[in-house]
Write a structure and sequence with these properties.
alpha/beta, 179 residues, single chain, Nucleotidyltransferase, domain 5, six-stranded mixed beta sheet, globular
């Protein structure tokens, strides 16, 4: 069985070009093997809506690492398996923008799965919002907390796999910037 890296990011404003938190949940051999969560100093302004939604403010991230400081810790995790996110296009685009804005180079592309796209095919007629799927499956969720959201995404993926989903048929690639 493949190694899956479920991740979720929170952002400080509507530009969605920086992250204020990241959660990573590693799925290995059909179980959750590792979890990581960190606040991130986005070095940019927070908008009231994002603070209200996530509970993360400028005060919350004071003393937290910025993205370049955090990258050596999260890069090996992100690089260790197939990326998975709920509404993956959003989380991957924030990751790409952070890499670009901080002039960090990763790899040309990464394989990924989107649990929203998987759910649309596997559970037609069901709402595919993260909180609705968590309620459907009985998964605990502290919504818009990156650690909880990444774990919920991992749990949803495990439910899909247990039901016989073939991940290869959902696999896509996401391009990252090159220098």
């Amino acid at each position: 069985m493949a190694r899956y890296i479920a991740f979720d990011v929170e952002t400080p404003n509507r530009l969605n070009h920086r992250m204020s938190a990241i959660g990573i949940t590693v799925v290995e051999d059909g179980t959750i093997a590792e979890e990581f969560y960190s606040l991130v100093d986005p070095e940019t302004d927070f908008e009231p809506f994002n603070t209200w939604l996530t509970g993360i403010s400028e005060e919350s991230v004071r003393g937290a690492p910025n993205y370049p400081e955090l990258w050596p810790r999260i890069e090996p995790l992100l690089d260790s398996g197939i990326l998975v996110a709920h509404n993956a296009g959003f989380d991957l685009s924030v990751l790409r923008r952070c890499l670009r804005d901080y002039d960090l180079v990763w790899k040309k592309s990464a394989a990924y799965l989107c649990t929203v796209q998987m759910g649309r095919r596997l559970l037609p007629g069901q709402s595919h919002k993260l909180d609705a799927l968590c309620e459907y499956y009985g998964i605990a969720l502290n919504h818009h907390h990156a650690g909880s959201d990444s774990r919920a995404c991992a749990e949803i993926l495990l439910r899909y796999l247990a039901a016989g989903a073939e991940p290869e048929s959902f696999l896509k690639r996401f391009a990252f910037p090159e220098k």
